[in-house]
Every structure is written in C-alpha cells, then in structure tokens.
Design brief:
The complex is a heterodimer. Chain A is mainly alpha-helical. Chain A contains 14 helices and no strands. Chain B is globular and about 60 Å long. The mean pLDDT of chain B is 88. In chain B, the strands form 2 sheets. In chain B, strands 6-7-8-3-9-10 form a 6-stranded mixed beta sheet, with helices on both faces. Chain B has a 4-stranded antiparallel beta sheet with strand order 2-1-4-5, with helices on one face. In chain B, strand 1 and strand 2 form a beta hairpin. The chains are: A mainly alpha, B alpha/beta. At the A-B interface, helix 9 and helix 10 of A face helix 2 of B.
C-alpha cells in the first residue's frame, strides 16, 4: 500500500511538472485553477497559460503517458510469454516493420491524415504476425527460441530493406531517421483520442490473462502441464502486446527501453504477479515516459531532443542497475 | 484409467518410443527404469499429452489426443526436474497455480476458500506452510522441488507422473517424497508413474516395473527385476557392482 501511494504521488508530481515546465512556466495552482475552470467554470478563459496547457502540454503529457503505459505492458507480456527478461516487441520485429511502413509512406510522399501512423501500425503488426506464422510453420510447438530467432532474422531482413530504400532516396532520410528516434512534438488531442481507447482496451484484455501469464513464466512444458493451452494463449498474447506496441509507436516513432525498465522496476517493487505487474507497469512506464519527454523538450535552450534518445540514455544505465543489482 | 496400446512417438527425426503398451489402473503405481536414452522421459511426455504419438492412448475412456489441455491436466500432473526460475513468486502463489485447471475465473479477486484450503494442505504435506510467503528464487533446490510437488498435489490429479523428481533432494526428503506419494496414491485410488534412475528408489515406489530398452518394453510386470535382466539392459556386471558397494559399506 505504501509503495502504491509512492507511485501515485510520484505520478502526480511528474504530471504537474510535465504540464508546468517549459518555455512558459505554469505554477501548480494555475494548473489546478485551469482544470477547475475547464470543467466547472463559465464563459471563456483565453489566457496564454490556459491555451498552452490545454492545447499543447496536456495532450502531449497524456500521449506520453499512454505510449509509455502501452509499451511497458507490452514489454512485461513479451518477457513473460517468451520467458526472457530482455524480450520486447522490438525483439520480434515490430519496430523494423513499423520503420519500413513509415519509410514507404515518406518516400511515396503520402500526406493523407494519419497515413504515417496507419502504415507504422500495419507494418509493425504485419512483421510480428509474419514472425509468429513463420515460427509456427517451422516449429509446430511454437517454442520460444524459435519465435525469438525467427523474429530477429526477420527484423534484420526488414531493416535491410529499409536501409536499401533510404540509400536509394537519400532526400527523405532525415525525416525517416527523426521518425525512428521518436517524438511527442506536435501531437495533439486527435492522437490521444485514438490511442487512449486502444491502449485501455489492450491493457484490460491482457489483464484477463494474468493467471496464464504467471504460469507461463515457469516454462512451456510446465504451463501445459498445469493446463494452459500454450499455442493459443501464446498467439493471443503476442499479437495483443504487438498491437499495443504497434499502435503506440505508430504515432510517435520508435521509443525503446521503457518496455524493459518499467516491468523490471515493478517486479522488484511488487513481485512478478501479473495482476499487479500489468497495471503497475502501465503506471510506472507512463510516468517514466512523461519524465523522458519533459527532459527531451526542456534540456536544450532551443529545440528539443528526440524522446527515444532520452529514454535510452536514462533507461539503459537504469535498467542495468535494476537488473544486475538484483542478481547481486 | 490410462491405457497405452502400441504407442510410437519421437521428436521428428525418428521414433524414440517404439510400440509400447501397458495399462495403469487406479491405485496401481508403476516404475519405469532403463538406461539413458531408452525413451523413459519421452514416454512420460507422451502420457502427459506434451508430445504427439501414433497408436492408442485412452485417458478415462477418451483418446488422449482428442482431450483438451484442461481435461488432461485435470487428470494428469507431472513433477519433473525443476525449470530455471527467472521471476520471483511467493511459495503460496506458485502452489496456487496448481488450481488453475479447476478454476476458470478470469477476475482479479482472491482465490476461493476451497482453493486456499487445498493449497494450505498441499504446503502442509511437503512441510513448507511456514515458508509460504517466501520468494521461491530464494529457496534451496530441495525446497523448490517440494514447492513444485505441492503445486502438483494442489492440481488434484488422478495420476502423477514423476520424471527424476528427487534430483535436488537430500536422502531424507527423497525417502519422504516416495513414502508420501505412495500413501497419496493408495488413499485416493490414484496412480503414480515414476521414472527414477535409482533402482532402489524405483523398486521402493512400486514393485510393478516397466524396463525399457531402445524405446521398447524389455520387460513389464510385478517383481520382474532380476540381476540378469539389469545386466542385459544396462550392460554392466550388476553382481560385481553390488559386491563392490557392500565392500564399501563394510569398511
């Protein structure tokens, strides 16, 4: 209960900072007043701080939270299903597929609304479905090692196609590279409105499998012996977690490490049971992502860093500390 | 209870089990012995529904390959060599996983009183109730194996398959495990099929023995283990080995 209270308070603090800090400082009281005004006030308040908060920072902070939550839950599921503490959707080619989709849209000069996220999502999901289908064809029992190996090979293959396209169309290279580095810049309420229900439904759906996820961490044979239909459950959970990752990175580009950091922090604090691991990973991952975005947009005097760079710079040493400190 | 008729199975490259037939009746235990690579563990995996097979296996009157995973696991549990543990669960939570097959609820609520009593009883049986809140990754190999035994008991199967379950146990706990399982089977008219490398332990589990060689049943029945049979199957001078062991004890 104490740990839960700490996480809730930390989340609130990060949220206030994410809304308040930036080129224009909005004090906490002003934030509370603006929220009050929005929901209970009358008339129009068009002060600058109010607009910055509602039109820029709030959707951005919420999007960062949702993306962090979706990626973290996806990471927690991948690690348990594949029984590998270092596994994530990216291991199975989601990011490679999404990058290829983004590259095709950018190179084709498509400008329709949401064409980039749609292509990122479809190609990301396509890559993982293809990886599992190939693994399933090669190994009827769909063993973890086969899935990981096929995912890695497919990832390298798809990356090679993307690199080839980049070499052929160098004029678009910068745009693609920036998309790959991830950013929450210029994403508004539309992205929140699309991603929030997808993430909430995805996380609740995965939560329904909390017992199977617990059992699967003991190994494939053990899980089957206890009564889990491994083949079906593995397919369902891998696709569900890939959908979470795919929809998250489709809007903001590729952001790594949150899917490794958050589940491991939560396992240390709350244990490995998925009924707590899933919601807590969402909370911790969401908070971590809001913090990374805050650093990304405030650390430079002019402009901002790609959030994927910040999450890796902060996440890599932090993950190493959390993971190896446990091993003593 | 479980009937095998002319069963063949393997891992793709060829059959490891070559036409094995036997029947397990309620209250009847079976020890399977044989040299490394003769197919003992593969046979257990086939019986547990983990490997495809040819031939006929009937579980409670139903072909095994047609039974769902839940139906198989409600009737057959298996205690094998311990899997490596990557994630931390409490002893209690690990044993509670054995109740999965009997409880379809997907909600996040607490386990029922009935499930908790079954788990407590299983922990008492392996003398680990006092350690129920401990992290299993912090336990010794022997304690971990007893946790997995408790989980197997919590599954409340009709048949328990044992695949070298005594590997991490000291002598006291090895003896206790075999005694406990024999009593468990006898009390509930259930059955145990055990693969044990130690022939003394195997004979202690059951006088009904299946001796395997090259994927086939070299011999099967009550009190069939003889010096000659062991010499033929293991290709060692059993009498000389026994004499040597006795010499060591005398000294």
């Amino acid at each position: 209960m104490k740990k839960l209270a700490i996480i809730v308070l930390a989340l609130l603090a990060v949220f206030m900072l994410a809304i308040g800090l930036g080129s224009v400082y909005i004090p906490p009281l002003e934030i509370v007043r603006a929220v009050w005004y929005r929901f209970f006030g009358a008339g129009e308040d068009i002060s600058g701080a109010y607009i910055i908060m509602w039109e820029l920072r709030l959707p951005r902070a919420l999007l960062a939270f949702i993306v962090g939550a979706a990626l973290s839950v996806s990471g927690a599921v991948m690690q348990s299903v594949l029984r590998n503490p270092l596994a994530s959707s990216f291991t199975l080619g989601v990011s490679s597929g999404a990058s290829l989709g983004a590259a095709l849209v950018i190179f084709a000069g498509m400008s329709a609304l949401f064409s980039l996220p749609t292509a990122g999502f479809l190609f990301g999901m396509g890559a993982i479905v293809l990886a599992i289908a190939l693994a399933s064809k090669m190994d009827g029992r769909l063993e973890n090692n086969t899935i990981i190996l096929v995912g890695m090979v497919l990832s390298l293959f798809v990356n090679a196609i993307t690199t080839m396209l980049m070499a052929m169309r160098r004029e678009y290279m910068e745009r693609l590279v920036f998309w790959q580095m991830g950013s929450f810049s210029m994403r508004g309420w539309e992205a929140v409105a699309i991603l929030a229900p997808v993430a909430i439904i995805g996380i609740i759906f995965i939560l329904f499998y909390h017992r199977e996820l617990d059992i699967m961490t003991f190994g494939e044979n053990e899980a089957q012996l206890i009564g889990v239909n491994m083949r079906r459950v593995k397919w369902v959970l891998l696709v569900a977690s890939a959908a979470l990752t795919g929809s998250a990175i489709a809007f903001v580009g590729i952001i790594g490490f949150v899917d490794l950091v958050a589940p491991h922090v939560v396992r240390r604090a709350f244990g490995a049971r998925h009924r707590l691991l899933i919601p807590m990973s969402a909370a911790v991952g969401g908070g971590f992502m809001m913090l990374c975005d805050l650093v990304a947009r405030t650390v430079l005097p002019v402009g901002e860093l790609p959030v994927g760079v910040v999450s890796a710079l902060v996440g890599a040493p932090f993950f190493a500390y959390v993971y190896f400190a446990k091993r003593g | 209870m479980l009937i095998l008729k002319d069963v063949y199975a393997g891992y793709g490259a060829g059959d490891v089990i070559n036409g094995v037939s036997f029947t397990i009746n309620p209250g009847e235990n079976l020890s399977i012995i044989g040299p490394n690579g003769c197919g003992k563990s593969t046979l257990l995996k086939v019986m547990a529904g983990l490997l495809p097979y040819r031939g006929e296996i009937m579980l409670g009157g139903q072909p095994l390959h047609r039974a769902s995973r839940r139906v198989i696991s409600a009737k057959i549990a298996m205690l094998s060599q311990m899997p490596p543990l990557y994630f931390s669960y409490s002893v209690y939570d690990t044993v509670m996983m054995g109740r999965y097959v009997h409880n379809k609820s997907r909600w996040l609520g607490r386990p029922s009183d009935g499930d908790r009593k079954i788990v407590d009883d299983a922990l008492k049986a392996v003398n680990l109730l006092h350690e129920k809140d401990k992290d299993i990754t912090k336990l010794s190999g022997g304690q971990q194996q007893r946790v997995f035994l408790a989980r197997t008991l919590a599954q409340q199967p009709e048949i328990i398959l044992l695949d070298e379950p005594t590997n991490h146990l000291d002598l006291k706990h090895q003896i206790e495990l075999i005694h406990y399982l024999k009593a468990w089977a006898k009390d509930g008219n259930r059955a145990i099929v055990g693969v044990l490398h130690d022939i003394n332990q195997a004979l202690n589990l059951s006088s009904n023995v299946l001796v395997m060689q090259n994927g086939k049943a070299a011999a099967h029945g009550e009190n069939i283990v003889t010096e000659t049979l062991l010499e033929k199957v293991y290709e060692v001078d059993v009498a000389a080995y026994m004499r040597q062991s006795l010499e060591i004890w005398r000294k």
